[in-house]
Each structure stands twice: as C-alpha cells, then as structure tokens.
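Service request form, structural biology core

Requester: graduate student, group of Dr. S.
Request type: structure prediction, single chain
Budget code: on file
Notes: please return the result as structure tokens.

Sequence provided:
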Amino acid sequence: MSVGILFGVAAILFFLLVLPIFLVLHFVTKWRQSREFSKDDERMLEDLWELSQRLEDRLETLERILEDDLPRKRRRYESEYLEH
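Core staff response, request fulfilled:
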C-alpha cells in the first residue's frame, strides 16, 4: 500500500470516528460545567437572597405602620368629608 492510501484511510477514520467522539465528549463536558455555579454566581445569589430578606422586612414594617395609621386617617376623613 502506498503512503497516500494509508494517509487517506487514516484521515477517513479520524473524521468518521475520532472527531465525532471528541466533539461529543467536549460538549458534554461544557454542558456539565455550565450547570454548576461559579464562586461569583454563588456569591451573587447569596447577596440577592440577603437583599430580598431585607426588602421583605422593610415591606412588613411599612405594612404594620400603614395598618396602625390607616384607622386614624379613616376617622379623620370620615369626620371632615362625610359630615358636611
């Protein structure tokens, strides 16, 4: 067999067997890595969680203040506008 034929057979085997297997394994590895969070992603999620907790506490405080203040405003509104 000549060198050209050996080179052709090797090239065909490479493109039909080795290259597809390499590509599949490469992209499977990339896909698995993309499913995991990096350290920066974990830190960002933790910061967002803490921020959401603080905002929830603020909202609850505002709701309590409004619930306490609303009956007084309602009585004032009723006395000012409904009596006339």
